[in-house]
Amino acid sequence: MADRLDPILTLLAGAEALRGAGAAYLPQHPQESAATYQHRLLCAPFFNYFKRATRALAARPFRVRVKLLDASDELLAIEDDIDAAGSDLTTFAHDAFRAAVAKGFVGMLADFPSDQGASTLAEERAAGRRPYLSVVHPEAFVAARSAVDAGQERFVHIRVREQAVALDPTGYEETPVERIRVLEPQSWQLWGRRPKGAPEWALVDGGPTSQPDVPLTVYYAEEREGTCLVEPPLADLASLNLHHWRSWADQSHVLMVARFPILAGSGVDVETLVVGPNKSLTTPVPEAKFYYVEHSGAAINSGRQDLLDIQAMMAALSVDLLIRRTSDRTTATAKGIEADTATSVLQAMATAFADSLTRALRNLERWMGVAEPRARAEVDASFALMLHDQTELNAILQARADRDISREDFLIELKRRNILREVFDLVENERRLLGEPTLGGESTEEPIAGEPGMGGMGGMGGMGGMGGMAGEG
After folding, report:
1. Considering its fold, how many domains does the chain have in total?
2. Is 383 domain-assigned?
3. Measuring CA to CA, which residue among 165, 101, 112, 169 is closest to residue 137?
4. Cβ neighbours for 389, distance < 8 A, ≥ 6 positions apart
5. Confidence tier at 443 by pLDDT (50, 70, 90)
6. Chain segment 199-243, per-residue pLDDT in tens
7. Percent of the chain having pLDDT more than 70?
8. Residue 16 and residue 451: Cα distance in Å, rounded?
9. Using CA atoms, how far apart are residues 141 and 162, in angstroms rounded to an integer?
10. Would you say residue 455 lies in a domain?
11. This prediction's pTM
């Protein structure tokens, strides 16, 4: 899993991390000098398609707040601070889901303060402490062992890497400290490295707990291959993003070279000439000549096309999880039925995540002493895009262009196909159009529902690009 996560974590960390990785993601060309490579590495432009796509996709299910149903009073009391750090349930769920979309899986742990010495629920309550949910990212897992009980994964041992900060006696100098938290049924331990990077580990804290199981729930964004082992759903997009960066680095470098023509000479009896705006060139050799050697530009256009092709593939992969597909070989009636029942990949992921979040919340309720935890989390999944028959969509666009159907009917058809958002209002749209400048002359368009008319469809000619992530709002 670590090998799968390396490129993803690097992309999420951004351009600085990519350049810091050096030849791991931007190989040095054969015969390329170290100085030239460093210049190419530092000047290589980078656009983080992967991070933007994961952020946009993960935000979809949380445009509507997570609903907490059948929850105990104890859980309702901490819904607005579910992680004991100020995050409400929706914010916590969004952070966990975003990690899973990017990295393949995520852990949600019903945790407790590490300095707690209580071994029973009564002692925990008397100490004024309470459990909370925390996100455990895939890269934090050191080890995990689980068993399947009643169809659910139950963990019997996990080791999780944590980062702490140690202060020197002055209180100013900070030193990062690596720690490992070990959780098993009814017990926990916290280990830390000895000072100054010594390899030995020392037990920092630990003791019994009131929980019979490790209160960890793992959500898998793709079909799991084993305990905490899964293929990240956007691994192909990450690979393309790295390829795009390498191609852009080469393109940027070749542009730099091509912009500086080389002055050459034939029949000249000197090897190097000093040129400049205040210099002139002379030679005693009558047949000698000077000329510039310039790049033909063919490779530049090829490189540019390669970048455009990669960008198109990345755009397709970015929106693919959102598309709700229907069969190509169905009747019109069957298509209507499938439109109501078909589910996009991201919708299925959001539904499965709600189940995992429910189990995590019930772990939290058990920690609070709720006898029969029944809390349920409901995550919005009404956001898929419909992949329509292109012929059908083209026919509607052409009918509008030929003014065979009115603008109102055109917008109704787009809304019926989920191309426009569910709350799209025709009259409100007309009112907003009145406040925009026309794109060329007065309009002869008819008004909608008694509202004054307004010029043209504006940008409807660009419908072919509606599949991009830019329109997610």
Report:
1. 1
2. no
3. 101
4. 328
5. very low
6. 788 898 898 888 888 999 999 999 999 999 999 999 999 999 999
7. 73
8. 53
9. 9
10. yes
11. 0.72
Two tokens at 369?
Answer: 């002493």
Those residues whose C-beta lies under 8 Å from the C-beta of residue 72, and which sit 6 or more positions away, are 365, 368, 370, 373, 374, 375
Please state the separation of Cα 280 from the chain's center in Å. Answer: 57
437 contacts 443 by C-beta, under 8 angstroms? no
Give the least confident one: 11-25, 82-96, 106-120.
Answer: 106-120
Helix axes 345-367, 89-103, angle to 10 degrees: 130
Q: What are phi and psi of 174, to 5 degrees?
A: -110, 135
In a domain, 407, yes or no: yes
User: Is 265:288 a contact under the CB 8 Å cutoff?
Assistant: yes
CA atoms within 13 A on the CB side of 371: 0
Instruction: Assess if residue 435 is contained within a domain.
Output: yes
Query: Which residue range(s) make up the domain with 441?
Result: 388-471
| 67-81, 261-275, 407-421: the lowest-pLDDT one | 261-275
Cα–Cα distance for residue pair 245/250, rounded to 1 Å: 9
Q: Report which secondary-structure segment, H or E, holds 297.
A: none
Distance CA 380, CA 66 (A): 7
